[in-house]
Amino acid sequence: xxxxxxxxxxxxxxxxxxxxxxxxxxxxxxxxxxxxxxxxxxxxxxxxxxxxxxxxxxxxxxxxxxxxxxxxxxxxxxxxxxxxxxxxxxxxxxxxxxxxxxxxxxxxxxxxxxxxxxxxxxxxxxxxxxxxxxxxxxxxxxxxxxxxxxxxxxxx
Length: 156
Description:
five-stranded parallel beta sheet; two-stranded antiparallel ribbon; alpha/beta; 7 strands; 4 helices; Rossmann fold
């Protein structure tokens, strides 16, 4: 049996609660519609609605439009109009603690490029399974929750 999800481009799928706090949106920067659709479905397991875009230019516009709601960015490193890592770097200038999950099928993209490695940045090589993607998002979510708890307790 085949499953056909509606196209994620140009729309958002809603979820009512979010373990990410007040932010409830994942910005997906992926030019492959099938991958973006799968990510949209999987991210609902984390209480995240998806806003999808296929290019860096569109991603930056949607980032500004949904900035206050974005909990996570999942970005393909190779986009039709540039490097997804550079797009994420520009977003990080505006939201320094923005969690990022980068992905690519190219060995040339196996680094963080213009981003500094470490805090709230993960890399997921393509192809990846749904379980691998969920594991990466779960680890980012746990890191966000630890950071939030430390700030609330006055440790940061």
